[in-house]
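Hey,
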Amino acid sequence: MRYDSPFIKFLEAIANMLIGTFLWFLFSLPVITVFASGAALYHCTVKVIFGEKKGNGVFRDFFDSYRSNLVPGIKLSLIALIALLFVAEGLWTGYQIWRINIWGLLYLILGIVISSIVICTLIYIPPVLSRFEAPVLSIIRLAVWFAMKKPLRSIFYLLLLGALILGIQAFPLAIVIIPGVYADLIRTYLEKDLQKFIEENGLAQDGPEEDEETLPEEEADESSIDLDRRFAEKEGKRKK
């Protein structure tokens, strides 16, 4: 049997996806680490399972990404939990008012719109976190920007997430692979948007002064770009 055959490569991708999903589930158990593990899963899906590191093991890349994103990931998870609590309270309040007064329907609809925006933003946070090294507010700002840039696609990602959650409810064992499948399904077009943003804002690393000999290993990878520093450098060059 040829080990480079399409069938073997397909099985290898499935195996790595299962491993990545298991690691995501394991490291998401504390709940406040869900964005750090989500960023690590997305990183492995893009870079290891289907990217330039294809064929490499998932473990090391997952742990490296998880470790580098742990602190901002915890902060983002706490912010997300607070935001979701406010959204849930707003939806519940709107529903209760609607039962008494028809004007409560408007309040409920507004709550649904806001909750959709919040959840769409949360979907984009792990990919953005996996790609950029920046303060928490910058990560949130970027996630909102990507979510609102192409709202129809964001709505599709939201509906797809809902469909996969229903799939897990119908077939609980599907949880062992569905998170990895979801990361794979959203990566194609999302990666194009991320790469375009990097190029348009001068964040792509080029030139001898920014090669791997002058940058630490983690900064030499596009997945670890100091967004604020690079923007500051760019603005400095413009002023000159």
